[in-house]
Write a structure and sequence with these properties.
This protein has 312 residues and is α/β, with parallel strands linked by helices. It has twelve helices and ten strands. The protein binds ligand 6CS. InterPro entries: DctP_fam, TRAP_DctP_sf.
Amino acid sequence: DTWRYAFEEAIDEVQGVFAQKFKEEIEANSDHEVQLFPYGTLGESADIMEQAQAGILQFVDQSPGFTGSLIPEAQVFFVPYLLPQDTEKLSEFFRSSKAINEMFPELYAQQGLELLVMFPEGEVCMTTQEPVKGPDDLNEVKFRVMTNPLLVESYKAFGATPTPLPWGEVYGALQTGIIQGQENPMFFIESTKMYEVTDVITCAGHNNFTTAVMANQQFFDGLSAEDQEMVQAAMDTAFDHIIDYQSGLHEESIEKIKEAKPDMQVNVLSEEERTPFVEAAATVEETFLEMTGDSGAKILEQLKADLEAVEN
Ligand code: 6CS
């Protein structure tokens, strides 16, 4: 039989490299085949999620940036400065976190989804037309965010005018001036040529892009115990692979951007310049708690405990 797996990026971008590794593992260890559907073949992120919930797809990679509208607690990944930027600590956190490996699966299950893995895709940086040294520089900037209420609140707190849009509209909206900024990991800024339609990259260390792979729950429940274990093992192997794959990717992507557009500015904000953004994070955390109540509070508390365990 053939398992259909869709993701939000191109085949040679991070989600695609992960999916290819998963496919390779499954096909090496079983008679199942995995058919991959990169971004654009089946629609936007919201479309592939619907298809996975309906059982048309067996697997889907959707980042919490979009799942936040379906599972409000998944917005926790948009509380700024929550995740460490240190890649070793970060991968250890994803591997060991109780919030991720025990609590989130219950919430995804309520939406008919078996959460299989969450993994990081790199530090998120902003790209804009003008330099951003602090929140004042975001004033009047229409800034594209993924369709996620808490991310909207973050960019409000950062001083911008957030504009939620699906990915497919971002390049054109920047080109025509409908928006003047967006955020993404460096590999994605490079591969999607965001440098063609913005002039300045600003890294404020406020977040690391998180994504999640899930299976249709009914499909997964119908697999033999052996197949379920094989799927989980293939996800674990793909996790290790994607962590290795990303080593140095941020820096290599900056080099490629500089080659393609030598006058592209890349600014890394100093500790002092970050302060107002860090301060804004506190209000975003409060908003998260207002939006998600008891359930969100428990997730946030566990997540912080998991992060602390990794720090020490
Ligand atoms: O900004 C976005 O919408 C996209 N960014 C990444 C890194 N992956 C998929 C997502 O659609």
